[in-house]
């Protein structure tokens, strides 16, 4: 929203957004490789250090999370994609403002995305 409303006009914002996207992609790779046995714990930690620039402590914290809650990183990414698809559908397709979209989406709390679209529209 900071970018959409041009609240943050820093020239570094696009770089930060790209870094965050890179981190999320590597998060999914590491999670999947841990789940399928292609990575050991140590390989996963090194991957995040090498490809995302995390410190060892930060990489270990993330890998601990992935091993405790497998597939959560993927669900976060899928949720982000679904939010963007809905945003396009409602803001471009129906002419909703960004505030209306955000208020509408947040009003549902944490129910499944499919239910929001199925029962929250019309």
Description:
- The chain has 2 domains: 13-70; 75-120.
- The protein has 122 residues and is mostly helical.
- It has helices spanning 13-35, 41-52, 56-68, 72-92, 98-106, 113-120.
- It contains 6 helices and no strands.
Task: Please describe the structure with a list of short key phrases separated by commas or semicolons.
single chain; 122 residues; mainly alpha; 2 domains; 6 helices; 0% strand; flat
* Helical percentage: over 70%
The string of secondary-structure elements, in order, is HHHHHH
Q: Report the strand count.
A: 0
Count of helix runs: 6
Q: Show unreliable segments.
A: none
The major pleated sheet works out as: none
Number of domains: 2
Architecture blueprint of SSEs:
Elements: H1 13-35, H2 41-52, H3 56-68, H4 72-92, H5 98-106, H6 113-120
Helix pairs in contact: 1-2, 1-3, 2-3
Task: Give a quick summary of the entry.
The chain is an all-alpha fold.
């Amino acid at each position: 929203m900071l970018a959409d409303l041009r609240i943050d006009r820093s020239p570094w914002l696009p770089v930060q957004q790209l870094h965050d996207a890179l981190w999320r992609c590597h998060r999914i790779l590491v999670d999947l490789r841990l789940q399928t046995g292609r990575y050991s714990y140590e390989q996963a930690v090194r991957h995040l250090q090498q490809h995302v620039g995390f410190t060892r402590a930060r990489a270990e914290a993330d890998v601990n999370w992935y091993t405790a809650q497998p597939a959560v990183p993927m669900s976060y990414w899928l949720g982000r994609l679904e939010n963007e698809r809905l945003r396009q559908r409602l803001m471009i397709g129906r002419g909703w403002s960004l505030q209306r979209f955000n208020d509408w989406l947040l009003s549902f709390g944490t129910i499944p995305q499919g239910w929001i679209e199925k029962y929250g529209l019309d």
